[in-house]
């Protein structure tokens, strides 16, 4: 069986360079590829286009890349927790494409499945549909949305094996699965990496065919974006 294992995050990110387009899994701060993001910050590459549900917070997640002015364009559906994002967007320093969350997921899934585009009713009659092809199906109007084209997908899973098979845990099973195989190269970081054949086939969420590189991450902070607790 082909091994997808690489020995470090540095090896996993070989080939990344300026002006590339990246997909990054996660929802809020849940299930984000922390190790990959940290390495992108360390590499100090610039001119990036990042496709992600959100842009992290000011001092964590994609917020670290924004702070270093490494991102030129964000394609997202929710960015309300990041003051630096807001500042760069309003000042014109950052190009932003805001799209409906479901459309974001389906444009990832289209790329994963090899479809060039999809039709969706989301956004018809709004700014989202401006300049895009529309078409009627069964009396309802739809907007044509093109599949994403990305150089790398960076995803994070709970457990994986050396063949690239992945299992996600809880809410971390968000945008990570649909981004696997949706770019030229998918890099998966996992909390636990086991030999091929040790995972229960019935529990695997993403088969290894969608992953090109896998490594065991470390020092996960797993921050909570909005901590809400009951009063005593």
Automatic annotation (TrEMBL):
Supply the Pfam families for this chain.
CoA_trans (PF01144)
Keyword line: Transferase
Where do transmembrane segments lie in this chain?
A: none
**Domain of life where this protein originates:** Bacteria
The UniProt GO MF terms for this protein read: CoA-transferase activity
* Record PANTHER family: ACETATE COA-TRANSFERASE SUBUNIT ALPHA (PTHR13707:SF60), KETOACID-COENZYME A TRANSFERASE (PTHR13707)
Q: What is this protein called?
A: Succinyl-CoA--3-ketoacid-CoA transferase
- What organism does the record attribute this protein to? Aurantibacter aestuarii
